[in-house]
Structures are given as C-alpha cells and as structure tokens.
C-alpha cells in the first residue's frame, strides 16, 4: 500500500513523493509554480500598497479617520475644508482617491480567484484525462481508480486552499487598517466579505470541487469549464443574496428632534456596520413600513400621502448588521461552502466507483 | 457463484456483450485463450476488437455476460497487476518526458521492471529526456509499449500497436516484444487488421466480425482444419457436388476453375481436385471475404465456464 502517500526517508528525513502523490505533483508542476508566482506577486502588491497607505495617513495625521455619515471625521473632529487646516479635506480626499481603488480592485481579484481556480484547475482535472484517453493508461496501472481519484482531488485541494489562505490573510490584514476610512463600503458585500476571513478561504475548495465534479461528469474540458464558470459565479451570487438573512439584523430607530431634524451625530451602533439592509418608517404600533412600499409614489406629495395611508409616523428605522455579525457570518458561510465541498467530493468518489461495478 | 475456474485460461469470455448508445458493439462472445499464447485479434474496423480489449482490461463494464482474466472477473482489483493494456491511440501525458512516463510506471506498479522498459525505449532510439508530446506516433507507441512491458504483467493487451510504425521498427518492436514474452511466458493479445504483421509470430487466433467471434483457436489447428481446393466449377454455378458434404467457407470461380476454402468432413473432394493446406492468411482472407461463413472454434478455444442464469 505504498503507492499512495509520502514516505519519510531516513536518515536524511527528506520528503520524497511516492506513487500517486508523485504522479499528481508531476502533472501539476507547471501550475504549481505559476500559482506560487501569482500568490507571491499579489502578496507583495498588498504589502506595498498597505505600507504606502499607512505611510501617507501617518505623514498627514489622518490615521483612523472615517468618511462617515456624510462627513469626514478625524480624531473626533470634523475635517475642515479650508486649505492649510490640518488635517485637510484635501489630504483625506487624496487618501481616498489613491488607495480606495487598489483596495477594492484587489478584493475583486480575490473574489474572482475561486472562479479561476474552478475553471482552470478544477474543470480540466478529470475532463482532460477523460477527453484525451489518458485515464485508460492510468486505470490499467496497478492502482485502483478510486485511490487515483482521491489523490487527484486531494493534492490540488491542499494547494489551492493553502494559496488562497495566504492571499486572504494578506488582504484581511490590509482591509483591517483600511476599513475605517471607507465606511461606505459595506462589509457584507462581496468585497470585502468574500475576499476576507474563512468565508473567502472556503470558496476555493468549493469552486475547485465544482470544477472537478463537472469535468468528471461531463468528460469534456470546454463544457466543464463553461459549466464551472456559471456554477461558481452562481454560488457567489447566491451566497451574497443569502448573506443578509444569515443573522437577524439589528434595527436602529431615529426620531426627529423638535426642529424636525434627524440626529446626525455619529450613532455608535452604525459605525463599522453593514448598512443598507432595509430602512423605512415605523407605524404607530411600531410596525416596519419599508421604503419600497411607496417606491411607485410620484413626487413629494405622493410619497407623503402613500406613507400616511400606510399609517407611518416620522420615526425612521434602519436595519443594519453590526460589526459583531461579521465573524459569525464568516463562519456560517465557510461552513456552508465546506459542507457543499464535502458533498461534491463524495459525489466524485461515488461516481468513479459506480462506473466500475 | 460455483463457476469452475480454469486457472490456466488467460482470457475467458462467456455470453459477453457490450451495447453502446448506437447499438451492440459485441454480442454473445464466448471463447477461451489459454495462458502464455501469442494471440492475434483480427477483424475489419468496427468488428469489436477494441471493445473486447477494453472489456478485458476492465475499462468497460459488460452489458451482458462476463470476461475473466486468469479466472477472475476483469473488473476485480486483483487482476489489475496481471494485465497490461495499450489503448489504440496510445494515450500518454504529452508534457511528461519519456523518463517521467517510465517513472509513472515505476510509481504505480509493484512489479515494475525498469531495465526491461528502458530496453524497449532504447531499441526504438527514443531519448529518455524527450518530451512525449514531441515524439512521432511510432515513437510514442514504443513508449506506451515500454510502459506495458515494464509492468511485468502476465497478459499484454495491445490494441493495434504496430499501426503507425515503419516496417523496420515494427519488426524490431515485435522482436523485443516476443523475446520478453517468451522469456517470461507472458500471454499477448495483439489486435490488428494487417495480417502480415503477425505472420509467424502468433500461435493463436481470434477473428472477429460484426461484434462476434468467427474463428478461435491455435493457428496450427485452424490451418489443419481447413483445405484449399481447386477444381472444375459447377456448370450451373453454385457449389459443385464434389464439395457438397464439406463446409464451404468461401469459393471463387475463375473461368472454369473454382477455388474454395473448405472445412473438410472426411476425405476432401475427389478426382480432378487439387487439395492443399492453406496458409493462415488464406484462412483469414477466406473468412473475411465471406462474412456469413459459419464460425469455428477449436476445442481449446471453447469457453469452459458456463454461466448459470443471466
């Protein structure tokens, strides 16, 4: 039973790949180096951008400043738009202009990564063998095809998960210092949620297995890649749609003061929160009347009339996911992805066994 | 479950059938190939040769019946070490070097014989460092054969291994293949539609046509069971009376002369008939020309395992 696995060679204690492990590693040698290069390049870029950003913020004394609630706030003070004031709005605008785009683009690249893994690593894994007939050559060696399948799945799985983990760790590290500045970027949207934390890591094995299963079932590389593209993009879309419902959002109520103005002082629970889940007016009995109910009303009068008819008061509510929901949601999404990944792996093992019966 | 297992049968099929979506590729195939024989699997394209070999290699699942390798079902994990298979299009990893391909054999086969594999590659002048994808079709076949021979299997299943070889290399490849086979008593099944390539090499024959076995047995016995007769043709056409009690496989009339391949029952023909023993090629050509001729199995080629039930 030594044809799968790694044998530790004494006395040098050097690891040498044996059997199927050697075969799979040899088959993916080029992809492995390419993947490593991508990881190093992106990680280096993140380190550089993060250092630049922090350097600029420190030099101009705007660390921890937030563009929040329609105002730029710095160390508890509003930023003056006057020239010469320190910190100025100018400085803050430069910080946003220069570093916001790289941060979000890098995040978009990271959420595209699972799709690329599924399409270019997962889908061809079995499809290419079945398409070119090399499976006949491997299946007539002395190793069973179920073990072959497990080895083919396991090694790339470990590699893509490890590579993604490194990138996600770097990106999370960057995001944590940047998020305070970009309060308008809701943490629950695809960037950054699918590019940070365990949820981002779990997307990689799931996408890889979607590709592998598609290739195994379809037996053709190109159709498998197309299906994988659709399925992995669909999974991310579906997870984004599901996400606000993973936990019950917190409702924040705001009442106008005597002059009819709503409070604009920073409300603690809104800071760092994922806003935009839902908002509207409360009825006298405290029932929520979402804004969408009157979305078809025309003009300010139509709007007022519509809400009046629905029994709305002027008490405004907003549903948000506070920052404390981030980690539970991350683990929930990671769990969903891992369960699906395990199911797909089981499907592959079952499928290959069935074909031989 | 209480089948008699004949341990000496390298390959044994009974009631074997394989249906693809487009129809039956193989039907009611039953035969036996004793161990250690060099068997030519001959037949026109589409006659079911590749399907039969893939079934024997355990790559396909039979639709009906069974195929046994050394007494065990072809799908049995235990048979995997004992057979080696070279598929028709010689699939290999194009990005592997020749050395990598042989290493694949070493890593995945406990009985691997590196020197035997390297010998085959060296004889074909294929450098070990060459990428498989850069090799010619013939060279690739050599690497595929090396992989099969290095496995030290007891039965080699080779699907058209010589199709893309030049005559010189074909001869050399056959030579080294036969030497390896003779040395270790390895059985070989070679499918081909070029008869000449196996003349004098094989001692067993399976002729296929339309998904069925038409001739099966040792080449000597098959030759001995047939006669080539030449004599006057019947006046009204058809079979002359002199041949009536024999099984006429195929006959051709040239002018007033008739040449026929027959399976004689008793003394062949009579006065005025020239009777010769046909070459193996004569027998094969006779059957290939006459697709409806009745099939023939020698005693050792008859399947001994009879399946009870479906």
Automatic annotation (TrEMBL), chain A:
Domain of life assignment: Bacteria
Transmembrane intervals: 30-48, 109-127, 148-175, 195-217, 222-239, 331-352
Keywords for this protein: Membrane, Transmembrane, Transmembrane helix
UniProt name for this protein: Transmembrane transport protein
Organism: Streptomyces iranensis
UniProtKB/TrEMBL annotation, chain B:
Record key words, sorted: ATP-binding, Nucleotide-binding, Transport
UniProt xrefs under InterPro entries: AAA+_ATPase, ABC_transporter-like_ATP-bd, ABC_transporter-like_CS, ABC_Transporter_VariousFunc, P-loop_NTPase
PROSITE patterns, A to Z: ABC_TRANSPORTER_1, ABC_TRANSPORTER_2
Record carries keyword ATP-binding: yes
Domain ABC transporter: 11-235
Molecular function in Gene Ontology: ATP binding; ATP hydrolysis activity
Name of the protein in question: ABC transporter related protein
């Amino acid at each position: 039973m030594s044809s799968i696995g790694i044998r530790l060679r004494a006395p040098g204690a050097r690891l040498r790949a044996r059997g199927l492990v050697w075969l799979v590693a040899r088959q993916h040698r080029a992809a492995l180096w390419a993947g490593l290069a991508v990881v190093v390049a992106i990680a280096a870029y993140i380190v550089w951008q993060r250092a630049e950003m922090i350097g600029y913020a420190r030099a101009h004394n705007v660390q921890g400043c937030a563009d929040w609630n329609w105002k730029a706030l710095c160390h508890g003070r509003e930023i003056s738009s006057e020239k010469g004031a320190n910190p100025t709005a100018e400085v803050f605008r430069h910080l946003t202009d220069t570093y916001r785009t790289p941060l979000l683009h890098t995040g978009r690249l990271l959420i595209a990564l699972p799709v690329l893994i599924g399409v270019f690593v997962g889908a061809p894994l079995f499809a290419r063998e079945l398409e070119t007939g090399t499976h006949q050559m491997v299946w007539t060696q002395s190793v069973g095809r179920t073990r072959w399948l497990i080895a083919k799945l396991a090694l790339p799985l470990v590699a893509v998960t490890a590579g993604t983990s490194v990138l996600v760790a770097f990106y999370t590290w960057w995001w944590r210092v940047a998020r305070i500045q970009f309060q308008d970027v809701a943490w629950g949207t695809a960037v950054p949620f699918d590019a940070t934390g365990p949820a981002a890591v779990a997307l990689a094995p799931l996408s890889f297995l979607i590709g592998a299963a598609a290739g195994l079932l379809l037996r053709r590389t190109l159709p498998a890649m197309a299906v994988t593209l659709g399925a992995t993009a669909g999974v991310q879309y579906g997870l984004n749609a599901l996400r606000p419902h993973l936990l019950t959002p917190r409702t924040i109520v705001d009442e106008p003061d005597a002059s009819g103005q709503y409070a604009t002082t920073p409300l603690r629970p809104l800071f760092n929160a994922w806003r935009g889940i839902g908002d509207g007016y409360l009825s006298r009995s405290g029932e929520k009347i979402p804004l969408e109910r009157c979305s078809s009303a025309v003009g300010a009068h139509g709007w007022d009339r519509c809400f009046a008819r629905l029994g709305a008061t002027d008490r405004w509510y907003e549903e948000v996911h506070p920052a404390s929901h981030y980690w539970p949601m991350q683990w929930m999404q990671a769990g969903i992805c891992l369960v699906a990944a395990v199911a797909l792996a089981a499907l592959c093992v079952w499928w290959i066994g069935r074909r031989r019966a | 479950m209480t089948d008699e297992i004949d341990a000496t049968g390298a390959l044994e099929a009974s009631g074997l059938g394989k249906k693809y979506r487009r129809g039956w590729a193989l039907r009611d195939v039953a035969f036996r190939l004793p161990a250690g024989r060099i068997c030519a699997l001959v037949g026109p394209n589409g006659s079911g040769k590749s399907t039969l070999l893939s079934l024997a290699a355990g790559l396909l699942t039979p639709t009906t019946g069974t195929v046994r390798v050394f007494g065990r079902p072809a799908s049995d994990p235990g048979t995997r070490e004992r057979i080696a298979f070279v598929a028709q299009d010689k699939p290999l990893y194009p990005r592997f070097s020749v050395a990598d391909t042989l290493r694949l054999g070493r890593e995945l086969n406990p009985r691997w014989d590196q020197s035997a594999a390297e010998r085959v590659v060296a004889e074909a002048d294929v450098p070990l460092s060459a990428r498989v994808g850069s090799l010619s079709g013939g060279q690739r076949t050599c690497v595929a054969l090396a992989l099969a021979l290095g496995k030290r299997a007891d039965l080699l299943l080779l699907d058209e291994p010589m199709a893309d070889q030049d005559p010189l290399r074909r001869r050399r490849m056959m030579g080294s293949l036969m030497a390896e086979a003779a040395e270790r008593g390895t059985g070989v099944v070679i499918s081909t539609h070029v008869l000449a390539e196996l003349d004098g090499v094989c001692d067993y024959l399976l002729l296929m046509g339309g998904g069925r076995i038409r001739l099966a047995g040792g080449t000597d016995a098959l030759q001995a069971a047939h006669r080539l007769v030449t004599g006057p043709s019947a006046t009204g056409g058809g079979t002359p009376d002199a041949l009536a009690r024999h099984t006429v496989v195929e006959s051709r009339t040239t002018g007033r002369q008739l040449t026929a391949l027959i399976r004689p029952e008793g003394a062949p023909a009579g006065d005025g008939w020239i009777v010769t023993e046909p070459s193996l090629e004569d027998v094969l050509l006779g059957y290939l020309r006459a697709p409806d001729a009745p099939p023939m199995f020698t005693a050792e080629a008859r399947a001994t395992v009879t399946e009870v039930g479906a």
